[in-house]
Design goal:
heterotrimer; A alpha/beta (about 290); B alpha/beta (about 240); C alpha/beta (about 260); B: about 240 residues; alpha/beta; five-stranded parallel beta sheet; four-stranded antiparallel beta sheet; globular; C: about 260 residues; six-stranded mixed beta sheet; about 35% helix
C-alpha cells in the first residue's frame, strides 16, 4: 500500500506529536498518573480509539512494525481501519504476528504472548478516571489522587462482596501502579490484569475524548485491588479453545446456530493461529471434524 | 493540728445578682460569709426564707459564682479554692469530693432510674457491675420498688424523683455532701431512711452542709446551726 | 505561646469577618481530653463559624488553633499541610453534621458507610471491616441485620446514629458536632442525646458541640461558651453559666427557654 500524498508522517503535525511526547514523558515519569494533553480531532469518531491513535502517531517511527487488535482480533473493523490508516499515512510495515510487532495498539485486550522489552503497547481508553463512578467531582478525584486517598475504591469492592459475594468487576478492574496511583487499566478483562505487572514492554494509555494520557514504564508493579480475605482472582470460561485446544487463553463465545450451539475460541486470533500452525487442534477444528 | 479535719471553709464569701432584664437591678444576697465544716460534722443552714440559704449552698458547690471571698475545699489531701479554680478542677472536685443533692431531678430523658444512679457512681471510678448492684440496693433502701428501676423517672411522683436524687447523691460516698431540702417531699418512713443515711455518712467522716426545713430532721442530724442574716437591702 | 501539657485543642485570638459582618471577634477556647464543650448562641452568632475554624475547615484572618496529637506533638491546625489535616479528619478527629446526608454515602450500604474510614486507613480485611461495622451498628442501637441495607431506607434518627457510628469507628479522640440533634423528633432526640452522652463518656472522647438548644448543652456539656455577634460573652461550667448567668445576653437566652 502506498503512502498518501499531502499528509505529514503518521497524520499528526510535528508540533502536536511533540506536545503528546512531552505528555508521554511526564506520564512515564509518574507511573499511573493522568496527564492532560491537547487531544486533536481525528478522522474517526470518539470511542473508536482517537486517544490510542494519537499516542501511536506520536511514538511511531518509519522502522516500526505495527500491529492493531480489537478485542484480541486483528481482523475486526476497528483494528483493520486503524492499521490501514497508519499504513497509508506513515507507510510503516504492519503485521498480525505479535512477536514481529514493535508497536501494538489495542482495544480491550493484552496479547496472550508475553511481550518483550523492545515492544510498546498502546491502549485505547474510554474513561481514564477509575473513581469516576464513585465521585462525580473531577476536582475531588484529582485531590484524592494527589493525596493517595483511595479508601473509596475499596468501599466499592466492599459493596460488591456484600451484594454478590465477590468483586463483580469483570473488566477495567482498578489497579495500583507502583504502589502509588490508582489507575483504570482500560476495559481489558480482569483476566489480563496480571500481565501488566512487571511487564517488560512499555505500556501507554490514551483517552482522546477525556484528553488524558498515562503510562506504565517497563518492569513496574501493577497490583489489582482486593481484600486480604477476598484476594483478586482471574476468571475465564472453563472450556478449551475449540480451534486450537488452548486451556489457558481468554475465550470468546460465538453462537453458531439457532439451536443454542456455541463455539469457544481464543479471543487472541494471532495466538490461536500460531498454535494451530504448530499442530495443536481443538474439538471443533477442521482437522478434528474431518477425522470424525 | 485540728485544721487537717477542716473539709470546707469559706472566707468572706459574697454573692450578688445583677438582673439585666429588669433594668440592671442588683440583688445582694451573701456578704462576708465565714463558714467552717469539719469531717464528720453536719451543719444546718438557718435563716428566714429569702436569706440566701440556697444561694450559699449553690455557691459552695460552685454552681453560683462567688463575687468575693474564697471557698476552700479539701480535695484529695490539698485545699483548693473553688471560687478561683479552673472549670476542670471544679469538675474533678465534684466528681470525687463534693456531692450535691438538689431539689430537682435533671437527667437525660430516656435513661432508667437505675442507670441514672449507677452513672453517678461511675463518676467515682467504680466498676460498672458493682455500681449497678450498689444502685439497686440503694434504691431498695429508699423504697423504690424494683419494677420502677428500669423506667426513666420523668413520670415518677415528686417524692420518688427526690429519692432517685438522694440515691444519686449518696452513691458516690463523697467526703463532702451538700443537701438542699433532702426530705422535703418525703413521708415519715422515707424521711427516717434518709436520716439514717445521713447519720452513716457522718459516721464515715463526711462533712455535711444542708438546708433542713423539717425541724425533726434538723434536730436528728445537725451538729450546729449556721445562721444567715438577711442582707440589709438598700431601700 | 505556652500550652497546658494536657490540652487537646487550644484557640487564641481568633478573628474572622465576612465583609462587614464580624463572625469571630478575639475568640479563645480550650478543650481537654474527654471533655465536652458546648458553643451556644442564636443563629448568626458565629458558633458554626467557630466550629469550622477550630476543625480547620475555615481559615481565620488572625489567631491560632493548636492541636496536640496522640504522640504529644503540637500542631498549628491552619499551618498543617492539607494531606495531614485530611488524614487527621479521617483518624483522630471526627465531624458529625446536622444533616447526616451530607456525610453519609446514600448509595452505599450501612456497613460500607461505617467501614469507609477503616478502609481509608488502609484496613484490607473484608471480614474484619464487616465485623467492626456490625459491632458499631449495635453500639448505636441499629439492628445489625440492616448492615447491608442502603441508608435511604433508614429513618432520620437512624441516619444520625449511622453517621455517629461512621465517625467513631476509628476511635477519634476529638469529635466536632454541629447541631447533632437538630431536626429530629423530641423522642428521637432524647434517645440520641443519651447515646452521644454514653458513647462519649465510655470512650473518653472530647467533643465540641454547637447547639442553639440550652437543654442539650446542659445534658451533654461539661463547659459552655456563649456567643453573640462573634464574641464570647460568657464561658464557664455549664451549670454555672445556665444557673447563674452574668451577661445580659446569657440571661436573655436562659429566660427565653420554654419550660415543658
Amino acid at each position: 500500500m502506498s503512502t498518501m500524498e499531502g499528509y505529514n508522517f503518521a497524520y499528526l503535525d510535528e508540533q502536536t506529536k511533540r506536545m503528546i511526547r512531552r505528555a508521554l514523558l511526564k506520564a512515564v515519569a509518574i507511573p499511573g498518573h493522568q496527564i492532560p494533553f491537547g487531544s486533536r480531532e481525528m478522522p474517526l469518531p470518539y470511542g473508536w480509539g482517537t486517544g490510542g491513535i494519537q499516542v501511536t502517531a506520536a511514538v511511531l517511527g518509519p522502522q516500526d512494525v505495527l500491529k492493531v487488535i480489537d478485542q484480541g482480533a486483528d481482523d475486526t473493523t476497528n483494528a483493520v481501519s486503524i492499521r490501514r490508516f497508519f499504513a497509508r499515512t506513515a507507510g510503516v510495515a504492519t503485521t498480525t504476528d505479535t512477536a514481529a510487532a514493535t508497536l501494538i495498539q489495542t482495544r480491550h485486550r493484552i496479547p496472550e504472548m508475553k511481550l518483550r522489552d523492545d515492544q510498546i503497547i498502546v491502549y485505547q481508553v474510554p474513561q481514564p478516571e477509575p473513581l469516576s463512578r464513585l465521585e462525580p467531582s473531577r476536582a475531588e478525584t484529582r485531590r484524592m489522587h494527589a493525596l493517595a486517598e483511595y479508601g473509596l475504591m475499596h468501599v466499592k469492592l466492599y459493596e460488591d462482596i456484600t451484594r454478590f459475594g465477590h468483586v463483580a468487576i469483570s473488566y477495567d478492574y482498578p489497579v495500583m501502579v507502583n504502589g502509588r496511583h490508582l489507575m483504570a487499566p482500560s476495559p481489558i478483562p480482569a483476566f489480563d490484569n496480571p500481565k501488566m505487572h512487571m511487564m517488560p514492554a512499555l505500556q501507554l494509555f490514551g483517552a482522546g475524548r477525556e484528553k488524558r494520557i498515562y503510562a506504565i514504564p517497563p518492569y513496574t508493579s501493577v497490583v489489582s485491588l482486593d481484600f486480604d480475605d477476598h484476594p483478586f482472582r482471574t476468571t475465564r470460561a472453563p472450556q478449551c479453545c475449540g480451534l486450537c485446544g488452548a486451556d489457558n487463553s481468554y475465550l470468546d463465545e460465538i453462537v453458531i446456530d439457532d439451536r443454542g450451539g456455541r463455539l469457544y475460541v481464543c479471543s487472541d486470533t494471532d495466538f490461536c493461529e500460531t498454535r494451530r500452525a504448530a499442530g495443536h487442534t481443538g474439538s471443533e477444528s477442521p482437522e478434528a471434524l474431518a477425522a470424525e | 493540728m485540728n485544721n487537717d479535719h477542716v473539709m470546707l471553709r469559706t472566707e468572706g464569701l459574697a454573692k450578688q445578682f445583677t438582673l439585666h432584664l429588669q433594668g440592671g437591678v442588683r440583688l445582694n444576697v451573701l456578704d462576708g460569709v465565714d463558714l467552717e465544716v469539719r469531717a464528720g460534722e453536719c451543719i444546718a443552714l438557718a435563716g428566714p426564707s429569702g436569706a440566701g440559704k440556697s444561694t450559699l449552698l449553690r455557691a459552695l458547690y460552685g454552681n453560683y459564682r462567688a463575687d468575693a471571698g474564697r471557698i476552700l475545699v479539701r480535695h484529695e489531701g490539698a485545699l483548693f479554692d473553688l471560687a478561683s479554680a479552673l472549670p476542670r478542677t471544679v469538675v474533678a472536685i465534684r466528681k470525687r469530693t463534693l456531692g450535691y443533692v438538689s431539689q430537682f431531678l435533671r437527667v437525660v430523658p430516656r435513661v432508667s432510674a437505675l442507670d441514672i444512679v449507677a452513672d453517678a457512681a461511675h463518676d467515682r471510678a467504680t466498676a460498672p457491675a458493682n455500681a449497678q448492684a450498689t444502685a439497686a440496693a440503694l434504691l431498695h433502701r429508699l423504697n423504690i420498688p424494683a419494677n420502677l428501676h428500669a423506667l426513666p423517672p420523668a413520670t415518677f411522683s415528686g417524692g420518688e424523683q427526690q429519692r432517685i436524687n438522694l440515691a444519686r447523691g449518696f452513691i458516690g460516698a463523697h467526703p463532702i455532701l451538700l443537701l438542699d431540702e433532702p426530705t422535703a417531699s418525703l413521708d415519715a418512713a422515707n424521711r427516717d431512711v434518709v436520716i439514717a443515711m445521713i447519720a452513716e455518712a457522718k459516721a464515715r467522716g463526711a462533712a455535711i452542709v444542708g438546708i433542713f426545713h423539717d425541724a425533726f430532721v434538723r434536730d436528728a442530724i445537725a451538729d450546729r446551726l449556721y445562721q444567715i442574716a438577711p442582707y440589709p437591702q438598700a431601700a | 505561646m505556652t500550652v497546658d501539657p494536657d490540652i487537646l485543642l487550644s484557640a487564641r485570638g481568633l478573628n474572622l469577618s465576612f465583609g462587614a459582618i464580624p463572625a469571630l471577634v478575639n475568640v479563645d477556647a480550650d478543650l481537654w481530653p474527654g471533655e465536652m464543650l458546648a458553643i451556644v448562641g442564636e443563629s448568626g452568632s458565629g458558633k458554626t463559624t467557630l466550629l469550622n475554624v477550630l476543625s480547620g475547615k475555615l481559615r481565620p484572618q488572625s489567631g491560632v488553633v493548636t492541636y496536640r496529637d496522640p504522640a504529644g506533638a503540637l500542631h498549628d491546625v491552619h499551618a498543617m499541610p492539607q494531606p495531614a489535616l485530611r488524614a487527621l479528619h479521617r483518624s483522630d478527629w471526627g465531624f458529625v453534621h446536622q444533616n447526616p446526608r451530607e456525610n453519609l454515602r446514600m448509595a452505599v450500604s450501612a456497613g460500607g458507610n461505617v467501614g469507609e474510614r477503616l478502609m481509608a486507613q488502609g484496613k484490607r480485611h473484608y471480614g474484619h471491616i464487616r465485623e467492626a461495622a456490625i459491632d458499631w451498628l449495635q453500639q448505636v442501637e441499629i439492628d445489625p441485620a440492616r448492615v447491608d441495607d442502603l441508608p435511604r431506607t433508614f429513618s432520620g434518627g437512624m441516619l444520625q446514629r449511622l453517621q455517629i457510628a461512621r465517625t467513631l469507628v476509628t476511635h477519634p479522640r476529638l469529635v466536632f458536632m454541629d447541631e447533632p440533634t437538630g431536626g429530629l423528633d423530641v423522642s428521637v432526640q432524647a434517645r440520641l442525646l443519651d447515646l452521644i452522652r454514653s458513647l462519649v463518656r465510655r470512650l473518653g472522647i472530647a467533643a465540641v458541640l454547637v447547639t442553639h438548644d440550652l437543654a442539650v448543652a446542659r445534658l451533654l456539656a461539661d463547659r459552655i461558651i456563649v456567643m453573640q455577634r462573634g464574641e464570647v460573652v460568657e464561658a464557664g461550667l455549664t451549670d454555672q453559666v445556665l444557673d447563674d448567668p452574668a451577661h445580659p445576653y446569657t440571661q436573655l437566652l436562659v429566660s427565653s427557654v420554654l419550660q415543658a
